[in-house]
Amino acid sequence: MEVRLKILFTSLCHTDVYFWEAKGQTPVFPRIFGHEAAGIVESVGEGVTELKPGDHVLPVFTGECKECRHCKSEESNMCDLLRINTNRGVMLNDGKLRFSINGKPIYHFVGTSTFSEYTVVHVGCVAKIDPEAPLDKVCVLSCGISTGLGATLNVAKPPKGSTVAIFGLGAVGLAAAEGARMAGASRIIGVDLNSNRFEEAKKFGVTEFVNPKDYNKPVQEVLAEMTDGGVDRSVECTGSINAMISAFECVHDGWGVAVLVGVPNKDDAFKTHPINVLNEKTLKGTFFGNYKPRTDLPSVVEKYMNKELELEKFITHEVPFSEINKAFEYMLKGEGLRCIIHMGA
């Protein structure tokens, strides 16, 4: 049930940076990072019937076995067998590694390890896509961009003409804004503590901007005043517990829906008055935008091929693999959105 892939393009995500910085705090090290990528199938192992050498694919950090209760449910994408596990550095089949350097074992990372020209992945974590799709563009769909996009299109589901607030205007938040644009939202309000992000956000359909630091009252009150009682939908993409609470409390009573995307700190607690729930405000969460990787990602690629989804504006830098450290520098300095790393260069 394993596939060997030749990775052609990969990009850097905050998840890679977070675990790279925490490398001294885990026994699963050294490991090959990387999980947002695109490539071709080089060879397949026993039991693999859906893929063949030469297929164009996206490896994904979470999987779809197609057999568990989650995979068979139309409401969930959280596969029991292949959901993300940051502590597992081995293959599921035999609990062993597929990487080594001079005889020294090298662990896997979230089942993908795409900072390697060749990698081995469980077949359930591989999405076969249109061979005509440019891999240097669609590689960004295997993590953050799909997460934000799906949070809006699949979970928030804003009706055409609605008002949507996006909390956090990084790559995931801008993908959520792109989803609101595609859904036909009439107002897309970007909320961020960094006003320098506002101009770029206009490219993704954001029509208005709010910096909470500019007000002496809670941002949810500011948004309620701007929208005659609250926004129709909100999507939180920061991981800040305060932003999560604001995103929920800023939606309109009766029909407002808030979707949480960001990952909070382990000790955070979500606190709001129960009257917000009794007044029919809805709070939801999402994992990978509620996309099933093997089933749904091919259709997301088709949205790009049909020019419904614009990916080029997410790609702000490109470097050869020999200069991968530049990608880390861009990310750590907050410069740009996604840096494409060319594996063959």
TrEMBL record:
One cellular-component annotation, GO: cytosol
Top-level EC class: oxidoreductase
Family affiliation: Belongs to the zinc-containing alcohol dehydrogenase family.
Organism expressing this protein natively: Coffea arabica (Arabian coffee)
Domain annotation Alcohol dehydrogenase-like C-terminal: ranges: 171-301
Alphabetized UniProt keyword annotations: Cytoplasm, Metal-binding, NAD, Oxidoreductase, Zinc
Quaternary assembly: Homodimer.
Ranges of residues in domain Alcohol dehydrogenase-like N-terminal: 2-129
GO molecular function: alcohol dehydrogenase (NAD+) activity; S-(hydroxymethyl)glutathione dehydrogenase [NAD(P)+] activity; zinc ion binding
E.C. no: 1.1.1.1
InterPro entries attached to this UniProt entry: ADH-like_C, ADH-like_N, ADH_Zn_CS, GroES-like_sf, NAD(P)-bd_dom_sf
Reaction equations catalysed: a secondary alcohol + NAD(+) = a ketone + NADH + H(+); a primary alcohol + NAD(+) = an aldehyde + NADH + H(+)
Any GO BP annotation: formaldehyde catabolic process
Name recorded for this polypeptide: Alcohol dehydrogenase 1
